Predict the structure.
Amino acid sequence: MPLLGELYQAVSAENALFWWVGDRENWENVFCAIEDGKMVAKGQVGIMNVIPPGCAPNCKHHIYVNLKVVPHRERDDGLLDELYQVLYERAVVLMRTLPKTYETYLCVGNYVHESANNAFFTVKKGFQPLENLYAMKRSLEKPIPALPLDDRYQNRLWRIESAEEEVEYLKLEAEIWPEAPLGLERLREYKGHSNWIAMNVLEGDTIVGSTMAWQEEGDGVIEDVFVREPWRRRGIAKHSALPRHILSSGAWVRHGQAASKGSQ
């Protein structure tokens, strides 16, 4: 672990996206390169979402890889290639455990400023853009403006505690993103984060919009912001308490990241 910690410090100093190895049962998905007693690279692979039965035929499972090297070796294609090949082989093993009904995307997620790492995957390995993530920062010492919402809508905190509620949420989420639904395993992973909460906007008893947030490594993360098709362009995401309540719900939200997986 000390060697891993040194690599993490070197990589995170460049503000790169570095996966931690997780619990022992996940270590078979982690591969390291060590030279002269130093860890110079680490690769990791994991299943990010599994498509449940009944989804559209064009839906895809998602497996992600994370490959990071010490900054002075970030353009060492030989080192990157060697570790990537091991990751690819492990990804194939994981893919064979997934339901055969759907194909699988192999993906990598990086920040845009990780130019050398991005170039390795796009130029050398032929990866293509799939989706974007956006980050934001906000001081909670500044007032959060109250934006009026039509009286027919109400806000609700939702902890999605029962299996029936999980099914209900995933059905709504798959309605918004039919080609890449979240899946039960990923939802439960989200729910396992510190201070996790979901919030809805309702018209009567009908959920018309939703978002969720949690704390991760000291940051606030906002995910899955959506408004259902019949209620879009009514200012529900912008003017409702969806983002406002998330920002004001606790001092832990110092800054957050919101996925482009959002629909207004």
Observations:
- Confidence is low (pLDDT under 50) at residues 250-264.
